[in-house]
Design a protein that fits this description.
The protein is mainly α and 174 residues long. It has eight helices and no strands. Helix 3 crosses helix 4 (51-76). The longest helix has 50 residues, at 80-129. The protein is elongated and about 75 Å long. It starts with a helix and ends with a helix.
Length: 174
């Protein structure tokens, strides 16, 4: 009963992607995995999607779009050259669709951070001028604000608490 309360993605799609990703891609080059992880992180989907699962999604989307292109072209056109181009076009569209989605999420997140930056910097400045230390001022900002920038600042504070140097944690934030 508890499992049925979970969203469809968590119950069905995520386990299916996970099992497919490890069956199909036992060996994924570290460079490619790092590149895919970077895209996932910039879109703020880490923990929700692994690099291997993203690769499976890309292949599935390619196959589905190619099949859709084939279906549309067979239904509407009767020239073999155009059918092949619809299939190829569908394949490329499906391959790049997940990348386009991740890029959209990344840009949306960056815009939200840019929009929140003046308010957060103002609150940080006021807190430091009021006599709080930088760490205390960051805690105050995290308590008073919401959004992606606040999430990143909270992560920075967590890294500092876990022993990472303040300068290094702030560099990671950048």
């Amino acid at each position: 009963e508890e499992e049925l309360k979970l969203p469809f993605y968590s119950r069905i799609v995520k386990p299916l992607l996970h099992s497919l990703s490890y069956k199909i891609f036992k060996i994924l080059p570290a460079k490619k995995e790092t590149e895919l992880y970077r895209k996932i992180t910039h879109a703020h989907l880490q923990g929700k999607l692994s690099p291997r699962e993203l690769l499976v999604l890309k292949y599935l989307a390619s196959g589905l779009c190619a099949a859709g292109g084939a279906g549309i072209s067979i239904r509407l056109l009767e020239r073999p050259g155009l059918i092949a181009s619809f299939i190829l076009g569908g394949w490329f569209l499906g391959w790049y669709l997940p990348d386009i989605y991740l890029e959209f999420r990344k840009k949306t997140r960056q815009q939200a951070i840019t929009k929140a930056l003046p308010g957060v910097l103002d609150l940080l400045t006021v807190s430091v001028e009021a006599g709080l230390s930088l760490d205390s001022a960051l805690i105050k900002v995290v308590e008073k604000s919401k959004g992606p920038l606040t999430e990143e600042l909270a992560l920075t504070l967590q890294e500092i608490r876990m022993g990472k140097g303040r300068a290094q944690a702030l560099r990671s934030l950048a």
